[in-house]
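Deviation from plan, reported transparently: zinc ion complex.
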Amino acid sequence: TIPTHHSAAVFEQHGGPVEIKMVATPTPRGLKPGEALVRLIYTGVCGTDHHVLRGHWPIESKLPLVGGHEGAGVVVALGPGADAFVDIGDRVGIKWLADSCLACDSCRRGLEPNCDKAECSGFSRDGTFQQYAVAAAKHLSPIPAGLSLKDAAPILCADVTVYTALRRADLVPGQFCAILGAGGGLGHLAIQYCVYSGLRVVAVDTGEDKRQLCQSLGAETFIDFRQTKDLVDDVKRATTDGKGPHGALVAASSGAAYEDALKFLRPGGILVAVGLPGGAVIRAGVFDTVLNNLRLAGSYVGTRQEAIEALEIAATAKVRARYRVLGLSDLPAVFEDMEQGRIAGRVVLDLDK
Ligand code: 8ID
Ligand code: ZN
Ligand code: ZN
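Because the crystal trials were delayed, the predicted structure below was used instead.
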């Protein structure tokens, strides 16, 4: 039975406190065409949630807001027509892209996140830091039988994002890929996709916990960006011929990481931009970019299809998030830890705690 109220983490203003409180649960009768009501059990906490809470970005979220966009749960009610996409009882995920029109130029070209009418969970719509959420049924991701809801949660943003970004990088087995922010939520999954696809990983991050995590996941080299005297040189030397990696995936929310990556890439190399430090600029010298045949690509989450593919891979256990499980009530402390860079891998919240 669906309760009248449920717990949610709400913030009223950017930079303000996150309050865990009871909010009214939407009623099945109130669902609009194409909507589903999802009983969420777990949610991941993404660096993006932290940016949104603190108001780091040049774009603004709705307020008050329930954040969160890595939610895993079960469909409990359907609005008119939503049964074309999901059934009651289905295990589903709520990802960052909450809705898109599927009809505009971007949608037609397979760039759903760039839809003219894109809606984002935990940004323009209330997200997954709550026990019940309304979602556009067509954008729910089916969770495969072999994957627990807990394991599925971080796949819905961190994992699908790096899966999509690395496909865009078009690297082939044997090549080197540097991952900046390798010990974080996105980065530690990127290491696994690289290893899975036969790439050799140069991991860049900081601290003993992250070093251990990166190495245990198969990174050949770990470079601590806070300890090294010459990061660019260290990364280049980590590649057998010293010419630098063929690709760099920047998953760190740091402008400095972008500058480093442009300096150590091998000729013909590609920088895939994923981390979102608010207000940062990528300064690439035209002369160096042209003469070194460098490529720069942004990569923004993924499509419904990419989410399905990422969940399928997770179900095979070839790529799995490493996370600590905490309760919804721990969210304020999680943001504190994130700010201090204390989280290796991901945090997943049990929404009943
Ligand atoms: O679609 C997208 N492009 C997308 C999707 C999801 C998340 C982008 N993001 C963005 C987030 O908004 C955030 O800016 O990716 C970034 C990373 O998200 P996350 O992995 O969820 O955050 P994290 O777990 O805090 O990991 C970040 C790591 O970067 C390291 C930190 O130590 C941490 O481990 N790091 C930093 I900060 N500066 C670094 C530097 N200069 C660095 N690592 C290497 N060099
Ligand atoms: Zn569209
Ligand atoms: Zn995210």
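Residues 46, 48, 69, 96, 157 surround zinc ion (ligand 3) (CB under 6 Å). We consider this an acceptable substitute for the interim report.
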